[in-house]
Design a protein that fits this description.
α5 crosses α6 and α6 runs parallel beside α7. The chain is built from ten helices and ten strands. By secondary structure, the protein is of the alpha/beta class. The N and C termini lie far apart (43 Å). The protein has one domain: Rossmann fold. The longest helix has 17 residues. It has a six-stranded mixed sheet with strand order 6-7-8-3-9-10, with helices on both faces. Strands 2-1-4-5 form a four-stranded antiparallel sheet, with helices on one face. A hairpin with a 2-residue loop joins β4 and β5.
């Protein structure tokens, strides 16, 4: 558990202790080139190549155990690749010579478990990074907390404790906490995990609504096909051999690739008939 919250703290660092242009967020491009990663002989990611456009909502789908979350952790530098690299806003994030101590972009990550601090209220969770970084005066922080909670449909819930929240509400608080950083890039790790279909639909509408109000790039990893197809501008499917195909939701649904057809069938109708 200590290691998990260490990762959470790292994901709130933005790659830099220095914060610039807090009031302005912008979508940034992400380019992944020839990325490989193994753990103790287990080859998890194989020659991954992807390009995600600025302002795009991009989902990475695939069966469990195919490295989707591992790929996401590379983009936020929680894991280093064995080979290949990741460019964000045309900066090689693993090249020390290109990391000058002041990140040209801000990112945040919404973890699968929401990762809220039980000892803090909803408002305190949302304002955590703002207060730790002393981004602005306290009255401004309280205003930002109210605004971010409004964006996720939790206006006026600042004083609730985490024990009073449903699973879907916890997810939305975690999103509000990420939005409080005014990120240029936001990443979601299995956002519908442990949610029922109705709550998953509500969460999808929240994320979809953010596209109209916040200028950022969104990357989602999910095994929930319907969720990904509903939200995304483009979708990539990954399996044990690497990236299978990239396309719009319509292109993915119409694909003749047997890996995609099988994934669509098994995730929407159950086991394939003999």
């Amino acid at each position: 558990m200590g290691e998990f919250f260490k990762e959470l703290r790292q994901s709130l660092q933005l790659g830099s202790a220095k914060v610039s242009n807090y009031e302005e967020s912008r979508g940034v491009g992400v380019r992944i080139e020839n990325l490989d990663k193994s753990f103790e002989g287990n080859h998890v990611l194989r020659n991954i190549n992807l390009e995600i456009l600025p302002g795009e909502t991009f989902s990475i789908i695939g069966p469990s155990g195919t490295g989707k979350s591992v790929l996401l952790k590379h983009i936020v530098k929680l894991i280093r690749p064995d080979n290949g690299t990741v460019y964000v806003d045309d900066v090689d994030i693993f090249d020390p010579s290109q990391n000058t101590g002041k990140a040209p972009y801000r990112y945040s990550m919404v973890f699968q478990t929401s990762a809220l601090f039980n000892s803090l209220t909803v408002g305190e969770n949302v304002g955590l990074w703002l207060r730790e970084k002393r981004v602005c005066p306290e009255n401004r922080i309280r205003k930002i907390i109210r605004e971010k909670l409004r964006l996720v449909g939790l206006e006026g819930k600042e004083n609730l404790t985490t024990s009073e929240l449903s699973g879907g509400m916890k997810k939305r608080v975690a999103i509000a906490r990420s939005l409080a950083m005014n990120p240029d890039l936001i990443l979601y790790d299995e956002p519908t995990a442990e949610l029922d279909p109705v709550t998953s639909d509500e969460l999808a509408r929240v994320i979809q609504g953010l596209k109209k109000e916040v200028n950022l790039t969104t990357i989602i990893v999910s095994h929930d096909l319907s969720f990904a197809l509903y939200l995304s501008d483009r979708v990539a499917m990954i399996n044990a051999d690497g990236i299978v195909e990239v396309g719009t939701p319509a292109q993915i649904k119409a694909s003749d690739n047997p890996n995609i057809r099988n994934f669509i069938y098994t995730t929407t109708k159950g086991l394939k008939e003999e």
